Structure formats: C-alpha cells, structure tokens
Amino acid sequence: MPALQGRVAVKNYPHKIMQSFIQLLSEELIPDERKSRLLPFIQYLQEKRAHKADINLNFICTHNSRRSQFAQVWCAALAQHFDLKLNCFSGGTERTAVYPEVLNSLESFGFKVKRNVGENPHHLVQVSTSTSLILFSKRFNDEVNPKKDFAALMTCSDADENCPFIPGCELRLALNYSDPKRFDGSPIEASMYNARSWQIASEFFYVFQTLKHSEND
Q1: Given this model, what pLDDT does residue 16 score?
Q2: Domain residue limits, the chain
Q3: Residues 64-79: pLDDT tens digits?
Q4: Residue of 193, 204, 216 lying closest to 78 (CA atoms)
Q5: CA neighbor of 140 nearest in space, from 80, 213, 82, 57
Q6: Secondary structure, 3-state, 87-150
Q7: Residues whose CB is less than 8 angstroms from the CB of residue 161 and which lie 6 or more positions away in sequence, other chains included
Q8: Within 10 Å of residue 39's Cβ, how many Cβ atoms?
Q9: 16-20+49-212: CATH homologous superfamily?
Q10: Whole-prediction pTM value?
C-alpha cells in the first residue's frame, strides 16, 4: 500500500454500530476544564468556516502510535457526521508504528480496519460509507502532512514540551490526553484504550456540536 494519507473512496461500509455509539456521544458530559481547553479549537474552526477557508488539522503526539491516531480517526468520522469539511492528519516527534490495541479499539467502536504487516505498516480504516484513512506512524512534518495553514493539536504533554516550534501552523493547542501505554500488557489494557478512545471521541463530538449550534444561532 502506498505511503499516502487522507481520503480514499470506499463503498458499502456497514455503519450501524458507529451510529449507536454516536448517539451515546451526544449524551456525554464534558468537564468544564476540558471545555475551556477546547475553546480555542472551536474558535479556530469558527474563523476558518466564516472565511470559507480549508481546514487542516494535524494531531501530534510523541510516537504517533496511540492518541494522535485515535484523534485523527474520530475527528474525521465525526466531521462527516456533522457534515463538516476538514482534513485530518497526524504525526509525531518520532516515527514508530501504530500500536495494535489502537486498531482493536477502533474495531470495537464499529470502524472497519484493514491491517497490514511490516516494520511500520499502513492500515486502512473506514470512517464512513465513502471515506477511509490510511494510518501509519510518521513525523509531524512528513511529506503527506500539511506544511502551512493548519492547526497543530498536541495530544500529549511530552510532544508539547519537546516540540516547541512547529513551522507553518496557525494554531498550536495542547489537548494532552493521558497515555494508555502504561496499561500495555495488563488485564485492563483493552478497557483503558477504549476509555481513551471514548474520551477523544466525546470531546470532538462536543466541539463539532458546539460549532454547528453557534452557526445556527
């Protein structure tokens, strides 16, 4: 599979499981502290849409193997749910590989995953009936990622601290999700990865729902 990232046409994806989870996301309560952290993200989206400008989001974590991958997939899927046009990317300060439990978790939430093998395999994840993403670990400035006019959304504190300058970004925002890696190999590994995936999904649902409500007022 070629080393590309972005939208790929797919057909006949069974999306019913995902719809049930999206209904549950609409009932999730976001803590006020997290709402405050997400506010600049909402404002950025509002400004870009007001100017009818392209929206490019690059989710950045140290290894681009866990939280940034969750963020890329959920952001793309929920943007389609809310009929928002944006482009989702991810990267890290190092190049490793997508951790297998990330793919397991995505499957448990209804995403269809086509796995590949290798040192840093490229996996195909369908996020809607018409769109899929190619997931693989890469640096934040990889050739497939945007070089200017994008938001850099830091999904971990380590990347935020060790990558003080990201060329070309219009917004740099630290979202800083807790790392499920500390539960690797434990009896609760799967549940903790699902919990982090769910947190990320619920926050992006809140962001897009707030954005839509503000535009309809």
Answers
A1: 61
A2: 16-20+49-212
A3: 999 999 999 999 999 9
A4: 204
A5: 57
A6: EEEEEECCCCCCCHHHHHHHHHCCCEEECCCCCCCCEEEECCCCCEEEECCCECCCCCCCCCCE
A7: none
A8: 13
A9: Response regulator (3.40.50.2300)
A10: 0.90
